[in-house]
Amino acid sequence: MDAGAITDVAGIEVGHYTETRRPTGCSVVIARDGAVAGVDVRGAAPGTRETDLLDPTHLVPHIHAVMLAGGSAWGLDAASGVMRWLEEHGIGMDVGTSLVPLVPAAVLFDLHVGDATIRPDAQAGYAACAAASRQRPLEGNVGAGTGATVGKLFGPELAMKSGIGTASVRLGEVTVGALVACNAVGDVVDPANGQTVAGARTADGRALRHCTAALLRGEPLHSLLAGTHTTIGVVATDAPLTKAQAKRLATTAHDGLARSINPVHTMMDGDTLFALSTGKAARSPGMVVLAVMAAEAVARATLRAARMAHGITLAGGLWLPSAGDLTHTALHSSAEQGGKP
């Protein structure tokens, strides 16, 4: 079944920049005509920019893009490149003397994946804008998901590769779509059956450990630095919303993360979701329905972030397998043992 994409939402474009020197990058979501926006920062260790202006009590009515980037706090610089590209294309808030593009941003930590001195910068953000289109975005090891990993509670050497994913849900004339870069400290779970798809591996690296069960057994955690994880994303709709409603949509969209990541919103994650409304649809089905659609789109996009990734081996020999790699390894092992689990 076609999962859809955030670009199914009228007025939304997406572009990726993928760094070739090491696994990192950035992704931009553009609303050329402006979008009413909200944000909900749920993790305890976020890296963000221009989120205060999204408060429903604050003045600014619209934003023009959202930047998602790797590179930890360094990656916030990519938003400057987005501003430059938008200004050059006549997009921004008219302040009389010039246009000021408004570009909130959030970053995830991928500095442990390759050379940490290489991270997204303003030129990367500019390049992501130049690549933006209404076409279905690429998924997996691209853009902000290039260096994303999951399942790090028991050590990065037992983690797995994740990436960026997208999905959409449509009801009548209204669409809600999501773009999620999943870099969670926990596991990615399929909400349809509760099965772990990608996450922490067993000591031999050949099977899934299942974080929640391992924690409840009392298995000791690896020493982790706060803020070295984080899932970030954008949920967008063409339904007309106020700023207060956009804020609420961002909040309820986190339900989708809670369905597909376990554990989620930890002290080591900086989970952040933005909500955008382009207002291109004639009417809204109401906040209850939109909230259900948003959570569903986010859950599907998060699952795709894990499933569409491919495994990598770093220069030092660290293997970060994908969900598909681990399935292949498990099946190969089973065949060697005569089909026994």
Structure summary:
This protein is α+β, with helices and mostly antiparallel strands and 341 residues long.
Which secondary structure elements does this structure contain, and how are they paired or packed?
Layout: E1 13-18, E2 25-41, E3 48-49, E4 63-69, H1 78-88, E5 93-94, E6 99-100, E7 105-107, H2 122-130, E8 149-150, E9 160-161, E10 164-171, E11 174-182, E12 187-189, E13 196-198, H3 211-216, E14 231-237, H4 243-260, E15 261-262, E16 272-277, H5 287-307, E17 312-313, E18 319-320, H6 323-336
Parallel strand pairs: 4-7, 14-16
Antiparallel strand pairs: 1-2, 2-4, 2-16, 3-7, 5-6, 8-9, 10-11, 11-14, 12-13, 12-15, 17-18
Helix pairs in contact: 1-2, 4-5
CATH class assignment = Alpha Beta
CATH superfamily: L-amino peptidase D-ALA esterase/amidase
Low-confidence stretches: 331-341
Strand content: 15-25%
The helix fraction, in percent, is 10-25%
CATH topology: L-amino peptidase D-ALA esterase/amidase
For the record, the CATH architecture stands as 4-Layer Sandwich
Gyration radius (Cα, Å) is: 19 Å
Q: What is the element string, with H for helices and E for strands?
A: EEEEHEEEHEEEEEEHEHEEHEEH
